[in-house]
């Protein structure tokens, strides 16, 4: 009888290990598929690339724990963006000045595609400054909606991540796009 107990314990241990390997494989696949998008989104919320990388690591650690505990796997794409959103906002609140400095530096950075003509360079810089000003003047929710939409999330996923209605997402995006269009025409 003790001989039979040992193999059954080994089989149970192997099953647990296989389950863990499957979870690890699933997390690795999701990481490879969504890492860049999540990083861009965290950076759109004002995080540096370094801070964004740290947030992404925390997100995937949370995902591993989530899956390991057998929690729901429905719409993991939206789940990943929601966790990224929450962790990025926490990180950003700790370093609000850094966000303002990055926004100012990005507006003042020279455009490597600018033409040699000084007039064209001036016009290009003025246009970038206008668009950057529009971005900074947008309400926080509008910036978040735009950033999530730019990452390919659907209106429904954006609504879930931000905790707003579909109509709120639609209105926010329409207002924001109209503001950018007006600024680009000037």
Structure, explained:
- There is one protein chain.
- The chain has 186 residues and is mostly helical.
- 82% of the residues lie in helices and 0% in strands.
- It contains eight helices and no strands.
What is the element layout, followed by pairings?
Elements: H1 2-44, H2 49-68, H3 76-93, H4 96-108, H5 118-137, H6 140-150, H7 155-162, H8 166-185
Helix pairs in contact: 1-2, 1-3, 2-3, 3-7, 4-5, 5-8, 6-7, 6-8, 7-8
Largest beta-sheet characterization:
none
CATH topological fold name of the largest domain: Rna Polymerase Sigma Factor, Chain: A
**Element-by-element helix/strand order:** HHHHHHHH
Distance between the termini: 85 Å
| Quaternary structure classification | single chain
- What is the H level of CATH, i.e. the homologous superfamily of the largest domain? RNA polymerase sigma factor, region 2, helix turn helix motif
Indicate the mean pLDDT.
79
CATH architecture of the largest domain: Orthogonal Bundle
Quick summary:
The chain has 8 helices and no strands. The chain has 186 residues and is mainly alpha-helical.
Primary descriptors:
single chain; mainly alpha; Rna Polymerase Sigma Factor, Chain: A; Arc Repressor Mutant, subunit A; 82% helix; elongated
